[in-house]
């Protein structure tokens, strides 16, 4: 079911980030923006999520009726009980607006999107950016510079903060990353945990916050660059890179012994 939901979200294609172009909004709810105006693999995005106690069918009916009344071709997919996707094609503007819906703990969770239709999909992110079991939503963001670059992943994951923390740490260790440090911060009555890991000159910073009962946000940044000012913790990355270089030098030269 989660795979089908994410596939439906990936099919949503909508225009970027002009100020007058807003993500779809469901009345009476607070929409939380995911990032600002995002450039993802050369595509422009605006993303947000919301929750409501209204049943999914009511939310689906609102968006489908609104866009059809405005004269836009609109498609509704899903069982309308556990998951649904509503999308509309704005041909004149070259946009497609959409909303992905899923039920969680008796509420309807919605992800609204606006994305350019004509650009290429983003490249696959590096290892270290995790997609954990129980992920309700995941979105990647990449930036590049001459000596290297960074990639980011924002996810909503089923599970409380301590459970998600353990799963993230276990998976990063399995991939060969070593823990550098971790910090806990109290924000607005909630708790935010930040973990840093390094591996062979790479670094991953993970921030986990509990956003609702049984649901946590996971924000990860992977950095691979030779610029000292291009990493959050250049000393940890330097030591990790030096260890990797020593490992490479210790390997026998290709063809040695022949």
Q: What's a concise summary of this model?
A:
By secondary structure, the chain is an alpha+beta fold.
Task: Provide an overview of this structure.
By secondary structure, the protein is an alpha+beta fold. It has two domains: 2-116, 2-Layer Sandwich (Double Stranded RNA Binding Domain), CATH 3.30.160; 135-249, Mog1/PsbP, alpha/beta/alpha sandwich (Protein Transport Mog1p, Chain A), CATH 3.40.1000.10. The chain has four helices and 13 strands. It has helices at 2-10, 56-69, 161-174, 234-250, and strands at 32-33, 38-40, 43-52, 74-78, 83-90, 95-104, 107-116, 135-144, 149-158, 178-187, 190-199, 202-212, 215-224. Strands 1, 2, 3, 4, 5, 6 and 7 form a seven-stranded antiparallel beta sheet that branches. A six-stranded antiparallel beta sheet has the order 8-9-13-12-11-10. A hairpin with a 2-residue loop joins β11 (190-199) and β12 (202-212). It is elongated. The protein starts with a helix and ends in an 8-residue tail after the last helix. 34% of the residues are buried. The model is unreliable at 1-20, 144-148 and 227-232 (pLDDT under 50). Residues 235-250 have a biased composition (Basic and acidic residues). Residues 1-19 form the signal peptide. This is Lipoprotein.
């Amino acid at each position: 079911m989660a795979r089908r939901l994410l596939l439906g979200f990936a099919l949503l294609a909508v225009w970027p980030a002009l100020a007058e172009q807003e993500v779809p909004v469901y009345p009476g709810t607070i929409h939380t923006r995911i990032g600002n105006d995002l450039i993802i693999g050369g595509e422009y995005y605006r993303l947000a999520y919301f929750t409501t106690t209204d049943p999914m069918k009511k939310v689906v009916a609102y968006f489908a009726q609104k866009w059809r009344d405005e004269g836009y071709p609109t498609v509704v997919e899903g069982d309308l009980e556990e998951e649904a996707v509503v999308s509309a094609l704005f041909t004149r503007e070259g946009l497609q607006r959409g909303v992905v819906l899923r039920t969680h703990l008796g509420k309807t969770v919605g992800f609204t999107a606006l994305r350019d239709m004509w650009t290429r999909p983003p490249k696959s992110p590096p290892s270290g950016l995790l997609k954990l079991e129980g992920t309700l939503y995941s979105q990647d963001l990449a930036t590049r510079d001459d000596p290297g670059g960074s990639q980011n992943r924002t996810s909503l994951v089923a599970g409380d903060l301590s459970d998600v923390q353990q799963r993230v740490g276990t998976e990063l260790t399995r991939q060969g990353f070593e823990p550098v440090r971790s910090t806990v911060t109290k924000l607005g009555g909630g708790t935010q945990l930040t973990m840093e890991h390094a591996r062979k000159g790479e670094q991953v910073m993970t921030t986990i916050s509990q956003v609702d009962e049984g649901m946590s946000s996971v924000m990860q940044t992977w950095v691979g660059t030779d610029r000292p000012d291009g990493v959050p913790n250049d000393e940890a990355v330097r030591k990790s890179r030096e260890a990797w270089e020593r490992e490479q030098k210790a390997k026998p030269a290709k063809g040695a012994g022949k």
